[in-house]
Design goal:
Blueprint: E1 7-11, H1 17-24, E2 30-35, H2 38-47, E3 54-58, E4 70-76, H3 84-97, E5 98-111, E6 114-115, H4 118-127, E7 130-139, E8 146-154
Parallel strand pairs: 1-2, 1-4, 2-3, 4-5
Antiparallel strand pairs: 5-6, 5-8, 7-8
Length: 155
């Protein structure tokens, strides 16, 4: 549920596919896109150069050096590519930067062949100070891989 005036954070933004959608729903807000890859940040900046409500940062969330508290953070197919330690550090860093009551949207693959168990996702967010608001597991089209969709709220 976007109001359109939020400060939102996209973790692992890649080339900007999700960023485009998020920025279009922020008429009076700002989207901060973070990725560890110069290649993907450059690609996002080229693709979305006309979007005035996007700022990019190349690096890890824990090193994101601006003084902004976020209303919403998005993890879209990111956590499963991180080590266990990196997952905890990244979710912990997001928790520190999220407003009290702020929300995190998570979509992660959970297939045994590619992804991470949904229970592990829940444990990480619980440990980092979040409560689960809602979630479900489904299949994506056209790949038909299983994925976890969840919303967590900062306590």
């Amino acid at each position: 549920n976007f109001r359109g005036n939020e400060n939102d954070l996209e973790v692992g933004c890649g080339g900007g596919n999700m960023s485009r959608f998020l920025s279009e729903n922020l008429e009076n807000g700002k989207l901060y896109c973070v990725d560890v890859s110069d290649f993907w940040i450059s690609k996002l900046e080229r693709r979305l150069k006309n979007k005035k409500n996007i700022s990019t940062f190349c690096g890890e969330v824990k090193d994101f050096g601006i003084d902004v508290r976020f209303d919403l953070a998005v993890f879209h197919f990111v956590l499963h590519d991180l080590s266990d330690d990196e997952r905890m550090q990244t979710v912990g860093a997001v928790s520190e930067r999220l407003k009290e009551g702020g929300l995190v949207y998570v979509r992660e693959p959970i297939a045994e062949s590619h992804g991470m168990p949904s229970e592990e996702i829940r444990k990480i967010f619980s440990y980092c100070g979040f409560v689960e608001v809602e979630s479900h597991e489904d299949h994506s089209f056209p790949a038909r891989d299983r994925f976890f969709d969840g919303v967590f709220q900062k306590r």
